[in-house]
UniProtKB/TrEMBL annotation, chain A:
GO terms for biological process: polyamine transport. Belongs to the bacterial solute-binding protein PotD/PotF family. Keywords: Periplasm, Signal, Transport. It is found in: Periplasm. PANTHER family: SPERMIDINE/PUTRESCINE-BINDING PERIPLASMIC PROTEIN (PTHR30222), SPERMIDINE_PUTRESCINE-BINDING PERIPLASMIC PROTEIN (PTHR30222:SF17). It comes from Marinobacter zhejiangensis. Gene3D superfamilies: Periplasmic binding protein-like II. GO terms for molecular function: polyamine binding. One of its GO terms (cellular component) is periplasmic space. PROSITE patterns: PROKAR_LIPOPROTEIN. This is Putrescine-binding periplasmic protein. InterPro entries: SBP, Sperm_putr-bd. Required for the activity of the bacterial periplasmic transport system of putrescine.
Automatic annotation (TrEMBL), chain B:
The lineage of its organism: Bacteria, Pseudomonadati, Pseudomonadota, Gammaproteobacteria, Pseudomonadales. GO terms for cellular component: plasma membrane. It is a multi-pass membrane protein. CDD domains: TM_PBP2 (cd06261). InterPro entries: MetI-like, MetI-like_sf. Residues 67-273 form the ABC transmembrane type-1 domain. One of its GO terms (biological process) is transmembrane transport. This is Spermidine/putrescine transport system permease protein. Its main location: membrane. It comes from Marinobacter zhejiangensis.
Length: 345, 285
């Protein structure tokens, strides 16, 4: 056993030595959110090697960035909408040098200069998407059309929810007719009680790859990210994506450069690379989320461009709501009820 | 060798050992204890003033429930490990020395693969369209797939699988020391098989049992990734609560308090272990 421990120690030391090589870009991203081909081509064209590390929640990403702030472990991260705002306000981000970027003018005017980051001083949109309802048409009778349908007793033990506090509460709040960004303690409590009724029917939470419980046959209905639904449908044609009547959850994920990043130049290079229409189109085709790049949208294969799951029609977006920062006070309340939800059996 | 020549070496070793303990054991634990009595800060994680609120919150029925459920799952895991590990270790100590080396080696081989990877592998076995269900369906034992994954059972299977070697190894070491002469003597003095087992074998292997229980019970309560991957984030362990507090809720003081609680539980068990060894007259062993 002692030998084993010693070997482990040596391995750690070796890994520690390896990380100081020049021309490396440390990208910290959601799991399954960047095709390997893009990373390979970037290295081919620029010689910069991308070290790809993943997370499965904004909270986890934020906690690590906050901790590793001074040691600058990451050169790029991809927080969701409201986290850009939070991190920008807390001074965790380095400003984007727009003179180093090419292709920013291709961005959809509706997705830039948002109130989360005026003038995109700290962030560049990467992809946007929705969290909606999915079901396995082979195993579910009828056609679920609303979040409220999850409460149907027929689905006992067959439901999957994303392992994302804000998204799950968004559903609870919308079903009751409140805003998914509510900061009203009474509304949040009501949403908690509504969700607590659902809990015994929930089989699992998943934010690594929410399509997997459907593919594994463990769950038949629940929440899913639209890109996951696109990827899932390739393996399981009976997986249907629905824009629920109460409205989908909309989010925008953006590139940010953590303050004290080591390789700021490569970070800008990478952002520019991803903004290239051909690359951006490739990413959208590969992982099923929508590109904010208008030029890239023109280059998409017709099959992808017309896929309502990736690119919703205006009717699909009725009642849709963008996730917003709710502030720390409300967040603590959400946290408290989230713990109660998950620990309650 | 003269005494003078030995001294620098001894000093160096002592400095190394003490330095190690102070830097990597005492300091981190003090930081955890220190954090557990501070207040939460939304931006900087922790801030003054000192408070015991975090410990009071731990007494909340919610967390007490999680703790008890976690203890229950860990206890079932320990009992399963003991039931499998005890005869296994006995059998292991009875085969030829060469075989023993090979078998112990095989026991350790899985450690070369990361335990998280092995947990994901178990998922493939337990899934509704997994190997176990497909095999049982194929030979006609069941008509409908069993619900195994994302259940309490799955978490316990995962924990037993990962922790079994920690039960077997200390048991193997006590069985290896158990001399055949003692069993023969017991037999010669008229004791039957059962009587020999209860009065000779059990007392002599008890230290191994206690060591095994210690090595399984507490780690089982902390292995959050097993509950995450196999339990579907539903069957929480104390480890999940700690991880969630540090990473998701960003309430470090509360997470630290939960972790201190686990450490205290460990200390109590170690103390009990020491007492029982002393009673068995095995001190210094």
């Amino acid at each position: 056993m002692k030998k084993l421990a010693l070997t482990g120690l040596m391995a750690v030391t070796l890994v520690g030595c390896g990380s100081s090589e020049p021309q490396v870009l440390n990208l910290y991203n959601w799991s399954e959110y960047m095709p390997q081909e893009v990373l390979d081509r970037f290295q081919e064209e620029t010689g910069v090697q991308v070290i790809y590390t993943t997370y499965d929640s904004n909270e986890a990403m934020y906690a690590r960035l906050k901790l590793l702030d001074d040691s600058a472990q990451y050169d790029l991260a991809v927080p969701s909408t409201y986290y850009v705002n939070k991190m920008r306000k807390e001074g965790l981000l380095a400003p984007i040098d727009h003179s180093q970027l090419t292709g920013f003018n291709n961005m959809d005017p509706e997705l830039i200069n948002l109130n989360i980051d005026p003038d995109n001083a700290y962030s560049v949109p990467f992809l946007w998407g929705t969290t909606g309802l999915a079901y396995d048409a082979d195993d579910v009778e009828g056609e679920p059309a609303a979040w409220a349908d999850l409460w149907d007793e027929a689905y006992q033990g067959r439901i999957v929810l994303t392992n994302d506090m804000r998204e799950v509460f968004h559903v609870g709040l919308r079903v009751l007719g409140y805003s998914g960004n509510s900061t009203n303690p009474e509304e949040i409590e009501a949403a908690y009680e509504k969700l607590a009724d659902l809990m015994p029917a929930v089989r699992t939470f998943n934010s690594d790859a929410p399509r997997m419980p459907y593919l594994e046959g463990e769950t038949d209905i629940g929440m899913i990210w639209n890109g996951e639904a696109v990827m899932g449908k390739e393996d399981m044609p009976s997986l249907e994506f629905v824009y629920p009547e109460e409205g989908v959850i909309v989010w925008l994920d953006s590139f940010v450069i953590p303050k004290n990043a080591k390789n700021i130049e490569a970070a800008h290079q990478f952002i520019s690379f991803v903004m290239r229409p051909d690359i951006s189109a490739l990413i959208s085709e590969e992982i099923g989320y929508a590109t904010p790049n208008l030029e890239a949208r023109n280059q998409l294969e017709a099959e992808v461009a017309n896929d309502r799951t990736s690119y919703p029609t205006p009717e699909d977006m009725v009642n849709a709501e963008f996730q917003e920062d709710v502030g720390d006070e409300a967040l603590q309340l959400y946290n408290k009820y989230w713990e109660l939800l998950k620990a309650g059996r | 060798m003269t005494k003078g020549a030995r001294q620098p070496f001894r000093t160096a070793v002592l400095i190394l050992v003490w330095g190690w303990l102070l830097m990597l054991v005492l300091a981190p634990n003090l930081l955890v204890v220190g954090t557990s009595v501070l207040s939460r800060d939304p931006a900087e994680f922790i801030r003054l003033p000192f408070t015991l609120d975090n410990y009071i919150r731990l007494m909340d029925p919610l967390y007490l429930d999680v703790f008890l459920h976690s203890l229950y799952m860990a206890a079932v895991t320990t009992i399963c490990c003991l039931i499998i590990g005890y005869p296994f270790a006995w059998a292991l100590s009875r085969v030829s020395k060469r075989r023993q080396t090979l078998l112990v080696f095989l026991l350790i081989v899985p450690f070369w693969t990361n335990s998280l990877v092995r947990t994901y592998a178990l998922k493939l076995l337990l899934a509704t369209n997994g190997l176990i269900n497909n095999a049982l369906l194929a030979i006609g034992v069941i008509d409908e797939p069993l619900t195994l994954l994302y259940t309490e059972l799955a978490v316990i299977i995962g924990l037993v699988y990962l922790l079994l070697p920690f039960m077997i190894l200390p048991l193997y070491s006590v069985f290896d020391d158990l001399r055949d002469e003692l069993l023969l003597a017991s037999h010669d003095l008229g004791a039957g098989r059962w009587s020999t087992f209860v009065h000779v074998v059990v007392p002599l292997t008890l230290p191994g049992v206690l060591a095994g229980v210690l090595l399984v019970l507490l780690p089982a309560m902390g292995m959050f990734y097993v509950a995450d991957v196999l339990g579907g984030s539903r069957n929480l362990l104390v480890g999940n609560v700690i991880k969630n507090q540090f990473l998701d809720a960003r309430d470090w003081p509360f997470g630290a308090a939960a972790s201190v609680l686990l450490t205290v539980a460990m200390a109590v068990l170690l103390f009990a272990h020491r007492l029982s060894r002393r009673r068995l007259g095995e001190e210094g062993g």
